[in-house]
Amino acid sequence: MKILIVDDEPHLRKLIQQTLEELEDDGVELLTATNGEEALATIQAEQPNLVFLDVMMPKKNGFDVCHAVKQELGLGHIHIILLTAKGQEFDRQRGSEVGADLYMTKPFDPDALLAKAREVLGL
Fold first, then answer.
1. Architecture of the domain defined by 2-108
2. Mean pLDDT of the chain
3. Mind giving me the DSSP string for the chain?
4. Distance from C-alpha of 105 to C-alpha of 116, rounded to nearest angstrom
């Protein structure tokens, strides 16, 4: 099983990685990407089970990446959780439109993030 963490902010990527590290004991591989284009390439190559995807990123935003994965690449089985600092209803609606499975706002609760990852992966 694989989890891809996508965020252009190094400290947030690290924080999410540290939050999910204990899943490595269950055989989960943690992958990272720093922007939307890198995320798409990694998703195509690695086919992760779960993606934590930042919305506001350079090169391709999270909405565009999510849409590409779910609609264009036909990888609907990949669970995508959008992470954003914005809590506006517009963003939630846009997230639903592009096929996001869940929407979490930053700052997030590390315990909630870990619990969600366990739930999605069936751990």
1. 3-Layer(aba) Sandwich (3.40)
2. 94
3. -EEEEE-S-HHHHHHHHHHHGGGGGGTPEEEEESSHHHHHHHHHHH--SEEEEESS-SSS-HHHHHHIIIIIS--TTSEEEEEES---HHHHHHHHHTT-SEEEESSP-HHHHHHHHHHHHT-
4. 13
State the pLDDT confidence band at 58, using cuts at 50, 70 and 90: confident
Domain residue limits, the chain: 2-108
Angle between helices 10-20 and 110-121 (to 10 degrees): 60
Two structure tokens written together for 84: 């954003």
Residue 86, pLDDT > 70, answer: no
Phi and psi at 80, nearest 5°, equal -115, 125
